Amino acid sequence: MNFDFSDAQKALKQQTRDFLRAACDTTVPRRVLEDADEPFARDLWQQIGANESPGIAVPEEYGGIGFGYLELCVVAEELGRAVAPVPFSSSVYLATEAVLLGGSEEQKQRLLPRLATGETIGTFALSEGPGLATPANLQATLSGTLSGTKMPVPDGDIADFCVVVAKDGDGVSLALVDLDGRGVSREPVETLDPSRSHARITFDGAEAEPLGDAGQGWALKDRVFDRAAVLLAMEQLGGADACLQMAIGYAKGRYAFGRPIGSFQAIKHKLADIYIKNELARANCYYGAWALSTDAPELPVAAAAARVAATQAFHFASKENIQTHGGIGFTWESDCHLYYRRSKLLALSIGSERVWKDRLISGLERQEAA
Amino acid sequence: MDFNDTPEQAAYRAEVRAWLNANAEPRRDRPSVSRRLDADEGLALAKAWQARKAEAGYACRHWPEAQGGQGRPMIETIIYDQEEAGYDVPTGFFSIGLGMCGPVMAQYATEEQKARYIPPMIRGDEVWCQLFSEPAAGSDVAGLRTRCHRDGDDWVVNGQKVWTSGAHYSDWGILVARHDSSLPKHKGLTFFFIDMKSPGIEIKPIKQINGGSNFNEVFFTNVRVPDSQRLGAIGEGWQVAITTLMNERLAVGGAPPPDFREVMKLAAACELDGRPALEDSSVREKIADWYVESMGMAHTKARTLTALSQGKVPGPENSIGKVVSASKLQNVSSFGADLMDMGGVITDPSLMPSDALFQQSFLYSPGLRIAGGTDEILRNIIAERVLGLPGEIRVDRDVPYNDIPTGN
């Protein structure tokens, strides 16, 4: 039994935390949040690329560092803690994973080396607006070329290419689309969290290159999302812990009725509840990280559990952090809203809590039947 | 990161499993044997089981050999407990003795006393109980009123204890009493171990919500305790009690079934609107919540286990255990009864799924949220000891005990 990260992984985590503390304090997401002309922190993304962080889990033969997913998980937790305004999740957890899982040898050789250094930004497009996307209601259609509209596409306004989920005959397929190519138009859409840009992308006979087997796209999407779920959960965990630390700091220093508000049980119990949810999320996330790193048969259930627990924890921590701060927590100047916004953004990317709970139970039913 | 035992641990686990297979029945989906039997039968069965365990070297395996243990690493005790949890064996009768009284005796008793008292405790020959709580001292246990005064080589105890699990079948007990009411409340306490058959002790069972009587009131009228049975110095009773309570929180960690597994089985068997209840999205969402809590606890234990097996001190994450599991048990039980709809009120085991496990647990679970530290006290502990928040302002801390307002 060794349910812990190795010393080297812990060192990488500390190194990443130190780097982000210097390069991405909360003024950085705030800057992107407030400046409509800056869709992401380009300088920070370049530094992250120079560190080769996007290629941590990409095999060396495709230009990555070839460490593994436990290393990627510790980086993800720190990016979440820093509310980093960069396209890491779109490009690394979604686009890179989709190419690794579904790409031909030629596609991997062509795309992965530049994804691994951050020179190319990829993303993934499923949603077509409000409502749950299903194989039955997809409007985007492949027939040689791609037509349809996707929104919100995370980082869709800045990405170089996109993995698109589209109807293909009777089935669903994935396709790679060059976002600077002909027949593609895109515009930013406003979201709950402007520190991470999103776009509405219209495809009108756009050139599309098949990714993976035709008609098998939905199953491939599920596999990509299972893997991304663990990594996003790690980000959510980092964010939840940042909220807890922020709330503790405030509760110790803020005085009311002649004493620190942290000495009142109403506040103590609230913060204890955040801690409890965070620890439950941490334990589920670590198990998900293990399942991801070993490609265990338990991955679908472990990923769903990590995703559900971390979504609940970050949501709870970010809203109760505001509540702990009182009126000041509701102001634009306070950093509380950076986490509150990010928590909802992450909660809804790759599907809501309800969807993942259903996926969790379906996985348990399959385990039971086996 | 890996979940495998070391070769040594795997060999030990296999040995334990083989022994359990030869000596016990696997656990089934119904109330455990100790909840099916009456107290006398249960105790006899539990004593026999504990003796067999001790004979085979599986009881308190990590305790020092000089005190009747095997002097083995803690991880072996944990592996045994993990394996034993899969079997329907009588539990609960010795957890206070071995979880709290044993460690406090090991720390504070003389060598002769340890040699006399600890081995029979391990074998289950002698049962121990804990006499801390009082009618006016629950969460605020340092506010206790039971008095003691010195008389020659003895102390004389007068007063009342309450919520004493197993007092009626215990041979020995650990007791905190107040020797000086003019001192502030934490400073006037002294700690003893006491023969539960002493003249002047009267025990009355308390009937609980679930109809059972695990708890008692214990009355002391001029009960004499030799000074040689004092643990710690006069006035050091609170420090000794704290040692015990820390061990209690480790001892009272989990909760018995039903959990998400049992609800899932039930939901697959019950119908809602003509379809299995498990297909209903509201049912699925609830089960997912409990799965996440349950596995969160299991993986948290794995983190603790990792620290222990590396010879490190576990982090504070274990402190969430009882807060999560007690409420979960209550919610799961209530929901299980709901799934049976109007029939869910029936408690006759012969008429009900899982022998009325959900109904029994519904009535039993409120106690778990209180025993061994209420949900509220545990949240205070997490906030103050883990998160480092400032302590509650205490108006009674430095006041002579006599002057503290008492209300009713």
Q: Can you describe what's shown?
A:
- Chain A is α+β, with helices and mostly antiparallel strands and 370 residues long.
- Chain A folds into three domains: 7-116, Orthogonal Bundle (Butyryl-Coa Dehydrogenase, subunit A, domain 1), CATH 1.10.540.10; 122-215, Beta Barrel (Butyryl-CoA Dehydrogenase, subunit A, domain 2); 218-369, Butyryl-CoA Dehydrogenase, subunit A, domain 3 (Up-down Bundle).
- Chain A has helices at 7-23, 27-34, 42-50, 69-81, 88-102, 105-116, 217-253, 265-294, 299-325, 336-348, 353-369; strands at residues 122-125, 141-143, 145-154, 161-168, 171-178, 184-189, 198-207, 209-211, 255-256, 259-260.
- In chain A, strands 1-4-5-8 form a four-stranded mixed sheet. In chain A, strands 2-3-7-6 form a four-stranded antiparallel sheet, with no helix packed on it. Chain A has a two-stranded antiparallel ribbon with strand order 9-10.
- In chain A, a hairpin with a 1-residue loop joins β2 (141-143) and β3 (145-154).
- In chain A, α7 (217-253) packs antiparallel against α10 and α8 packs antiparallel against α9.
- Chain A is globular.
- The model of chain A has no long low-confidence stretch (mean pLDDT 97).
- Chain B is an alpha+beta fold and 408 residues long.
- Chain B folds into three domains: 7-93, Butyryl-Coa Dehydrogenase, subunit A, domain 1 (Orthogonal Bundle), CATH 1.10.540; 128-249, Butyryl-CoA Dehydrogenase, subunit A, domain 2, CATH 2.40.110; 253-373, Butyryl-CoA Dehydrogenase, subunit A, domain 3, CATH 1.20.140.
- In chain B, 42% of the residues lie in helices and 14% in strands.
- Chain B has twelve helices and ten strands.
- Chain B has helices at residues 7-23, 33-36, 39-55, 74-84, 95-108, 111-123, 237-251, 260-269, 281-309, 321-339, 357-368, 375-386, and strands spanning 128-131, 147-151, 154-162, 172-178, 189-195, 201-206, 215-226, 230-231, 271-272, 275-276.
- In chain B, the strands form three sheets. Chain B has a four-stranded mixed sheet. A four-stranded antiparallel sheet of chain B has the order 2-3-7-6, with no helix packed on it.
- In chain B, β2 and β3 (154-162) form a beta hairpin.
- In chain B, α5 runs antiparallel to α6 (111-123), α5 packs antiparallel against α7 and α8 (260-269) packs antiparallel against α9 (281-309).
- Chain B is globular and about 75 Å long.
- The N and C termini of chain B lie far apart (55 Å).
- The mean pLDDT of chain B is 91.
- Chains A and B meet through α7, β10, α8, α9 and α11 of A and α9 and α12 of B.
